[in-house]
Design brief:
The chain has 241 residues and is of the alpha+beta class. The protein has two domains: 148 residues, Jelly Rolls; 88 residues, Arc Repressor Mutant, subunit A, CATH 1.10.10. The strands form three sheets. A four-stranded antiparallel beta sheet has the order 1-8-3-6. The longest helix is centred in the middle third of the chain and has 27 residues. It is elongated and about 60 Å long.
Length: 241
């Protein structure tokens, strides 16, 4: 149930997207919107669908998956509150390149795609906010590509754990938010490679207990995996003794 979640929900009229907009513009957008609560496992849209709405995460998250013609599926990224979900497809009216699936009970604001495009065309402040969202998503994708192309599987896993522990506010541990197969997919490796990387990192200061990874020596782990602020949310200096 959503009421049992620990996430802090963003009210629709307090979204960063609406910050600075005139009250009349905000009211007009919300008049063409609805709040939609969904359960874990819900598919919001399939790749190839043409957007009917601009979806914005109010609480929870959505996972974006790519699927090949042979049916192979990979997790591309997770979108968390209060981000927009694939605004590029909505603005262009082009088919989604990914499927969106919900890994936890979540709530979304759905703004009719046509009304959203008209508002972006008419309001420079809203256009600027959407450009900002697109820019952040572009930078996330570039960071992801650098992570995949410049690092070994073990380095990717170690930097993921360090960034996760920082985001969770627990420097001595990281609790994996999804099943290991999904995390491995996001990191561009197999489930078996993910397990081997965790085993290898046991010599660099971690201990695995199910979904909880104890970080026994963060500075040693950082020295092994070399987090980079131009790729990760963390820097090696964050873990220096």
């Amino acid at each position: 149930m959503l009421d049992e979640m620990t996430y802090e929900e963003t009210a629709p009229d307090e979204l960063p997207l609406f910050r600075g907009l005139p009250a009349s513009r905000r009211t007009g957008l919300l008049r063409n919107a609805m709040v939609h609560s969904v359960s874990s496992g819900t598919v919001l849209f399939e790749q190839g669908d043409v957007p009917n709405f601009q979806l914005i995460v109010l609480v929870g998250s959505a996972q974006l998956f790519g699927r090949s013609a042979e049916g192979r599926e990979v997790l591309i990224e997770a979108v968390r509150a209060p981000d927009l979900i694939i605004p590029a497809a909505v603005l262009t009216g082009a088919p989604y390149l990914m499927q969106a699936r919900v890994p936890e009970p979540s709530r979304f604001l759905l703004i009719h795609a046509g009304a959203f495009r008209e508002a972006v065309d008419a309001d420079p402040l809203l256009a600027h906010a959407v450009i900002g969202s697109l820019a952040l998503q572009f930078r996330r994708m570039v960071r992801q590509i650098k992570n995949l192309k410049l690092r070994t599987a073990t380095q990717r896993v170690g930097c993921y754990l360090l960034a996760l522990s920082k985001r969770q506010g627990t420097p001595d541990r990281a609790v994996l938010p999804f099943e290991k197969t999904l995390i491995a997919s996001e990191l561009g490796i197999t489930r078996e490679s993910f397990s081997r990387a965790l085993s290898s990192l046991g010599k660099s200061g971690i201990r695995v207990d199910g979904q909880t990874i104890a970080i026994l020596d963060a500075s040693r782990l950082a020295a092994e995996c070399m987090p980079d602020p131009l790729i990760d949310d963390v820097d090696a200096e964050d873990f220096a003794i």
